[in-house]
Design goal:
One of its GO terms (cellular component) is plasma membrane. The protein has 250 residues and is of the alpha/beta class. 36% of the residues lie in helices and 27% in strands. The protein has a domain at 2-94 and 167-245: Rossmann fold, CATH 3.40.50. A hairpin with a 2-residue loop joins strand 9 (214-219) and strand 10 (222-228). The longest helix has 14 residues, at 116-129. It binds adenosine-5'-triphosphate.
Length: 250
């Protein structure tokens, strides 16, 4: 089933048109990778999916992003609710400078959960969901800043899981990580897709090939090709996709 339907999406930063007429349906409980050269609009497009671009000055968005048959760009759409249902993980792990426990409970508390037992359950479930529980269960009251980069990124994923999203947007989540931490996060993404829909921007084509079910190839704000990942990497239909994935591009 398609969980998001993007129809004729265009985005301008001032006069600069960064996203051009994108149409794309995102499948539920699958991993969709966005690939393409630097500056082609992958992160901008990702941010369109939960209206993170609203936070940037001078941005105009035209077109629709349908989430369960509602256009999230209607003025009446509740953006806080949207960002609860569509969470985001960034390139650089960005834990809050507080305990591991408080990092996880921050979101649920904002949404009104106060009961200590319920919060304890959320912490355990989220950390287990992010494959971090065993490593940190004895130091929940210690600062998150004392974790390794890879652990911090899994903590950020756990923090996102704590608010029970349906979709998780990830913007190059492993680019600041060492190879072992990268493997752990990749394995985690494979686990996450059993319950969640994941859309991930990656510079790493091997990563897209390893972990995604669908891949979109972006070039100068347009989607050149969007297909099953196997087809994109073994049988691309567009010459530009072929050039990019074989490293002949630019
Ligand atoms: N906040 C902003 N204000 C103005 N222009 C922006 C802003 N963010 C991105 N852009 C421009 O929009 C275009 C697309 O940028 P975007 O960051 O989405 O590309 P990207 O494919 O994610 O690149 P990278 O792989 O390098 O992160 C670029 O020309 C960029 O300079």
């Amino acid at each position: 089933m398609d969980i998001l339907k993007v129809n004729d999406l265009n985005l301008h930063y001032g006069k600069n048109r960064a996203i051009k007429n994108i149409n794309m349906n995102i499948k539920e409980k699958a991993v969709t990778a966005l690939i393409g050269p630097s500056g082609c609009g992958k992160s901008t497009f990702l941010r369109c999916l939960n209206r993170m671009n609203d936070l940037i000055d001078n941005v105009t968005v035209k077109g629709e992003v349908m989430f369960e048959d509602n256009n999230i760009y209607l003025n009446s759409y509740d953006v806080n609710e949207l960002r609860k249902r569509i969470g985001m993980v960034f390139q650089k792990p960005n834990p809050f400078p507080t305990s591991i426990y408080n990092n996880i409970t921050y979101g649920p508390k904002l949404h009104g959960i106060k009961d200590k037992k319920r919060l304890d359950e959320i912490v355990e479930k989220s950390l287990k969901g992010a494959a971090l529980w065993e490593e940190v269960k004895d130091r929940l009251d210690k600062s998150a800043m004392g974790l390794s980069g890879g652990q911090q990124q899994r903590l950020c994923i756990a923090r996102t899981l704590a608010i029970e999203p349906e979709i998780i947007l990830m913007d190059e989540p492993t680019s600041a990580l060492d190879p072992i931490s990268t493997t752990k996060v990749e394995e985690l993404i494979q686990e996450l897709k059993k319950k969640y829909t994941v859309v991930i921007v990656t510079h790493n084509m091997q990563q897209a090939a390893r972990i995604s079910d669908y891949t979109a190839f972006f070039l100068t704000g347009e989607v050149v090709e969007f297909n099953n990942t196997d087809d994109i990497f073994t049988n691309p239909l567009d010459k530009r996709t072929e050039d990019y994935i074989t490293g002949r591009f630019g």
